[in-house]
Amino acid sequence: ILCEIAREAGIPQEAIAARTADLCAAYVEGLRRELARPDPRRRALPGVRDLLLELDRRPDVYLGLLTGNLEEGARAKLGVFDLNRFFPDGGFASDHPDRDEIARLALAKLSKRFGVAFHPSRVTVVGDTELDVACARANGYRAVAVDSGWVPRAALVEAEPDALLDGFTDLPAAMRALELQ
Known about the structure:
By secondary structure, the protein is mainly α. The protein is built from eight helices and five strands.
């Protein structure tokens, strides 16, 4: 995203490449400052902690994180809500700029970490944008979309996820969507 903004601002590609590390460091520093500021609107989605606790208890579930954010930025965001402990590894924009490739790299990292050769059809991406659904589809993964309010629900419906959740407060519905019940 930072590179796209810089390109749109007319910064030459060579300059972007030379300053990417600086841009990323400035982003993470700014993000940490922002996250340190109290903001009552900042919250984890209701029910997400209960769902993660339930999934974490299951020996047949392996959790990983897939995000278009830098790992340091994602960890900072999750840290505010004490959610990092659920995601020992994953794929991040700091691994690769292309979301579909990030998902492939995440699968390889998690397979190595857990010592399990995950078949793509047994991997589920849970996300709240149509891009998350497209990323799952591009890799042969299942897609569960969550209507967090970030994008219009119609965009999620149009993306045709395997399941569409209104949120995480209905734990049985979330488990069914994940094909775990």
